[in-house]
Design a protein that fits this description.
12% strand, two-stranded parallel ribbon, eight-stranded mixed sheet, alpha/beta
């Protein structure tokens, strides 16, 4: 049996391997109390997606070069640092789901700027997502993003992001959020969407996921 808390070659070979709903060949490494990413060379670069959700990982590093990987799912961990060479190790990374981790500042996301194919990113539940003008700063850092926190990046955000300065400098919070008479309502809707997305990430049954997704869809269509 694989050692508890260690990502060993044996654990990798015995873990679920399946096609996801997006047709990605996925390696499932959920809920093994893993603290460190290691030994992924044992995957022999076979997988489109690696799912490390529900572990105890604190650093997004330790990857060999895996050119086939385009999605990394690492929600519900304790990630607080991203290795500077992530783009070199995962050169074709398109989707990075970091919901419910410990990233606290936009500066900690700087290594992602080199991930030129990254178009889908989730940082819901990280302290950084509570910063003023958070979305603008992230879009400024990653102008190629199409989706941030499961919400489409709009052209208006891109324009505002191009003019925003370093964190603490740039448009007012009202401008960053769109301003106007509906700003308060939009803020409440955004808050509820964020709550629903976190609830979906933490759901423990298919029925729960379905109900939450239906409410989220209704809110986004309203």
């Amino acid at each position: 049996m694989a050692a508890a808390g260690r990502l060993t070659a044996e654990l990798i070979t015995k873990s679920p391997q399946y096609m996801s709903c997006t047709d990605d060949y996925t390696l499932g490494l959920r809920a093994h109390k893993l603290a460190v990413i290691e030994n992924l060379g044992a995957t022999e670069n076979q997988f489109d997606c690696i799912d490390l959700t529900d572990n105890d990982i604190t650093r997004l590093d330790g990857f060999p070069t895996l050119r086939k990987v385009k999605a990394l799912l690492i929600s519900n961990n304790r990630v607080r640092r991203i290795t500077p060479n992530l783009a070199e190790r995962l050169p074709n990374l398109e989707t990075l789901i970091l919901t419910n981790n410990c990233l606290a500042d936009v500066s900690e996301l700087t290594p992602l700027a080199a991930c030129k194919h990254l178009t889908v990113l989730s940082l819901l539940g990280n302290p950084v997502s509570e910063m003023a003008q958070y979305r603008l700063h992230v879009v400024r850092l990653l102008p190629q993003l199409k989706s941030l926190d499961f919400t489409r990046v709009k052209s208006g955000e891109r324009k505002l992001a191009a003019g925003v300065g370093e964190p603490g400098v740039g448009p007012s919070s009202a401008q960053a959020r769109g301003g106007g008479a509906d700003a308060s309502d939009n803020s409440e809707m955004a808050k509820r969407r964020a709550e629903l997305k976190i609830a979906i990430a933490n759901a423990t049954s298919l029925d729960e996921v379905t109900k939450l997704e239906e409410e989220l869809l209704a809110l986004q269509s309203g």
